[in-house]
Description:
By secondary structure, this protein is an all-beta fold. The protein has one helix spanning 362-369; strands at 2-3, 16-17, 51-52, 57-58, 67-74, 80-86, 91-96, 102-107, 119-125, 128-133, 138-143, 148-153, 161-170, 173-180, 201-209, 212-221, 233-239, 244-249, 257-261, 267-271, 281-288, 294-300, 307-312, 318-323, 333-336, 347-352, 356-361. Residues 1-48 have low confidence and may be disordered. It has a 5-stranded mixed β-sheet with strand order 3-24-23-22-21, with helices on one face. The longest helix has 8 residues, at 362-369. It is globular, with a radius of gyration of 19 Å.
Amino acid sequence: MKPLRLLPAALALALAACASSPATVDAAAEPADGRDPSSRPMPNVFGADAVAVDEAFVTAPLPDSEIDSVASWTTPGGDTWLIATAKESHQLVVYDGDSGEFRLAVGGRGEAPGQYTRPNGIAVFGDLVFVVERDSHRVQVQRLPDFAPVAIIGADVLRSPYGLWLHETAPGELEMLVTDSFMADYRTETLPPMHELDQRVRRFRLQLRGEALVAEYTGHFGDTTEEGALRMVESIAGDPAHDRLLIAEEDLRAGTTLRVYDLAGRYQGQNLPRETFKAQAEGVALWACPDGSGYWVTADQGRDRTVFHVFDRRELGYLGSFNGAATAMTDGIWLDGIGSPRFPYGVLYASHDDAGVAAFDWQAIAQALKIRRSCD
């Protein structure tokens, strides 16, 4: 077993991995200006068939932060924290999840525990927050509410990580999937050889042992055919009840969509309809009911306006689209179905224009699209 990078012994961590390090990426392949290909300007498109759903709030802009992805956490006292990654300021930004009011920013540029270099994807499980750092090639785990460092995962195998999805496989055990969108040359957007695209998603097995976290790298996957390959990847989400993963294909040259894989990592020969996505497929989130019904929500990242498309959970049939009054350039989205005083039926959070976060009341979305507001 090859050890992953260990945090200080006082944190009582035991991290391990079982795969060799990937080939070193040539420095010339790194983005020359610090901006990745997914940050380039999007086409001016507008979903004419989308219905209007006004934002419940849009946070005050932080134009120097480059907000990318979002997640939420319910405190022991019942408050909602909305946590966003800020790529340019190398921080996490925390808002009140009901009002959008700024609470605090944590971190700063660096590679020490509690610091970040271009944090991108984010997810919350229990009181743990998982942050993908593209330029440190790792996933950092911290414990809420203090953001105390817990673990560094994947620094010896990840090359250019972006998004992640967590799945509880057994009590105290998680599977973590991380998208890895390394390129042959970032400056020219040259893709790796097709056979290397089998490394587009990395798997990790995580075990929670009290305050400690044990991590093991268990392999990678990605289709290598023209139809199913993942050329530029970021967002990923899964549905264990239907043995399904949706993975955003962002490469406009290949046709942007969400590809359907199973949990074993096999392409299922199916994509969400490409004609639905007029700009670029980005964030994806699942609204799930215990009986297996529910909805997939996806973000179509237009420069002037983001259009959110909704699909049936079971059959992946298209159900409709909506847009806000202002929300644009959305990268990550997060569906919080717990309910709160402001949003009793849940809320969809979406990054907005690289500078903030928008919130959409799920009840308002359901009413506009004539879909269910609850599982009852």
